[in-house]
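Team,

Forwarding the record for the chain on the shared tracking sheet. I've put the sequence and predicted structure together so nobody has to dig through attachments.
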Amino acid sequence: MTKRRATAAVRRVVLVVVAICCCALAGCVEWTEDQNGNLKSVGLPGLPVWQAKKPPPPQGLTDMALTPDQASKVSGPVLVVPPDQQNPLTRYRYYETGQNSCQQDLAQLQAETRGSNPGGQAPYCTENPVPPPSKGTAFVF
C-alpha cells in the first residue's frame, strides 16, 4: 500500500509542476503573418523558432489598400515611415505622377525626428513597399 501512495504522490507532484510550467509559459508563443494571412514565423517574442524560407511576394499598389483608379495616378518611390513611440503603425506616403518629392520629404522628416527614435528603423523611400507583418500571440496548453 505504501508503494501505491508514493506513486500517487509523485503523480500529483508532477501534475502540479506541469501546471505551474504551463501558467509560466502562458503568452510566450508569438507568430507573424503577411497581409494575405500566410504564416511567416513562429516562436518566442523576439526569438523566432521557425521562419518561412520564401520571401513575401512583391506587393502592388492595389494590394496596399489603393483602388485601381488611385494606383493609376501614383508613380515613383513611396515614403515608408516605420512605427515609433508616438505612432505604433507603419505609415506610407504615395505621390502623384510628376509630383514625387519622396527624397525631399525624407530629408525633412529625418531633420525633424533626428534622435527621437533611437534604435528604431529609420524612414526610407522605396519603389516596392512591403506591408508590415501582423503579429499574434497564443497560450499553448
